[in-house]
Amino acid sequence: MTAPGGQAAVHAIDAPGTDEALWRTWPVLRSLPTLDLPARGRVVIVAAHPDDEVLGFGGSISLLASAGVELTVVSVTDGERSHPDSRVVSGAALAAIRAVETREALDELGADRARVIRLGIPDTDVAGHEVLLAAELTDILSGAALCVAPWTGDLHADHEAAGRAALRAAGAAGVPCLLYPVWMWHWARPDDPRVPWDSAARIGLPPATVARKAAAVERFASQIRPLGPGPGDAAILPPDETAHHLRDLEVVFR
Ligand SMILES: [Zn+2]
To answer: Among residues 1, 41, 40, 29, which one has the least CA distance to residue 17?
Structure first.
């Protein structure tokens, strides 16, 4: 997911996260309206960093792939700054590692035919390239059935900028756009007033799909396990974080 930018984001994401048990026992999540995924056409999934698309929407990607829907995954950045203080891996090496992890994760989801487009926008500076990103996404979205992008309220600067650019591009291309949260599950609480629950919808995931998603998340070894013994090489996504993404439902905002 990569280190957050912006002071509010740093505080929200650095603070201890919400226990997944609280989300799992909150009845509102299960009573959200069900979202029907497209059965045909092309779906474009935008990720600020390689892994966002799997954490936030991977189960849905698997369902879409098994339905034969054409998929395009857009990696806005290569996620090269997830470990800026690493003593063992350079940013360039991380970018290469994470591109491979994405491909392997998509394979686990049964989405081996998905096209992956890497835009190479600098990690932690998506906001500084938002206009360029919107233009690139407008081209990519031409003729698509649906755009799915990180939520604009995720309290992570790159996620929010990618979501804003996707919304602008989808508007220009005349394509509907859904927004998926990633860090929200960490910093928000059930019934949190900062979250637009009224516009939320859920996609239910059968057990086999949850299992595929769990296998896909496991592929992001550079994020879920320490790279080395030093503090700059700690896991970005320890088990209490990945737990938020292994439920039997995914949530999007419409
Ligand atoms: Zn991310």
So the answer is: 1
- In whole angstroms, how large is the CA radius of gyration of the chain? 17
Cα of 2 to ligand 1 centre, how many Å?
Answer: 5
* Termini Cα distance of the chain: 22
**Of 77, 99, 67, 75, nearest to 5 (Cα)?**
77
DSSP per residue over 35-67, as a string?
PPPPSSSEEEEEESSTTHHHHHHHHHHHHHHHT
Dihedral angle, C-alpha 5, 179, 250, 115, nearest 10 ° = -90
- For residue 248, the CA-to-ligand 1 centroid distance in Å is 21
155: CATH: 3.40.50.10320
1 CA from centroid of ligand 1 (Å): 3
Let me know if 113 is exposed, middle or buried by CB neighbors in 10 A (0-12, 13-18, 19+).
exposed
Confidence of residue 1 (pLDDT cuts 50, 70, 90): low
Q: Is residue 20 part of a domain?
A: no
DSSP state of 128: G
- Centre of ligand 1 from the C-alpha of residue 145, in Å: 24
Residues sharing a CB contact under 8 Å with residue 204, sequence separation 6 or more, in sequence order: 34, 248, 249
Residue 37 lies in a domain: no
Q: Which domain holds residue 115?
A: 7-15+44-253
**Cα–Cα distance, 7 to 9 (Å, whole number):** 5
Question: Given a cut of 90, is residue 200 above it in pLDDT?
Answer: yes
Q: How many domains does the chain have?
A: 1
Assess if residue 29 is contained within a domain. Answer: no
Percent of the chain with pLDDT over 70: 96
Q: Do the domain assignments include residue 96?
A: yes
**pTM (2 d.p.):** 0.95
